[in-house]
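Here is one such protein, fold included:

. . .
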Amino acid sequence: MTQEANNSELKSLKNVDVQIKKILLATDGSIPAIQATEYSVALAKVMGAKIKAVFVESDDGIFTDGIIDKESLKESHPSSAGLEVAQLYAKKNNVVCETVVIRGSIVKAIIKAAEDYGANIIIVGNTGRTGLRRVALGSVAEAVVKNSRIPVLVLKAN
C-alpha cells in the first residue's frame, strides 16, 4: 500500500473516544478477582470513574435476603475479603468504590447489577480452569461475556 493510499484511508476514519465513568467489578476474593480489582482501580483512576464492587452469593448459599449487611458478611463469609480489598485499593488510590453483596444466579446477578448501575464496563477475573473442572464448574467469566450487552474485560490468572 502506498503512502498516499494509507493517508486517504486514515482521513476516512473517525476519531474514537471511550467514556468509562462506571465500572462494575465482580469479585469473589480469589487471586484472579484481586488482579481484576487492581486493574479496575487503575482504570478508574486514569478515567476518573467510579467502581461498584459486587459479590454474588449463589442461590444455593446460606443467605436468604437479597442484600446482606456488611456485619453479617464479615462474620459469615470468607469471600467478603474481596470486597474489603476493593475498598482498600480504591481508598489508597482516591477512587470512589461502593461495595454490595447480592444474592441470586451469579451470572444473571452480575449482569443485572451492571445494568442497574449504568456501568460502562464489567471487569471479572478468570480462574483459568481447564478440562473436566471447567466442564463441571463452568466459567462465570465466559458466561458473563456471552450474555452481557455491556463490554466485559476478563483478566486471566497469572
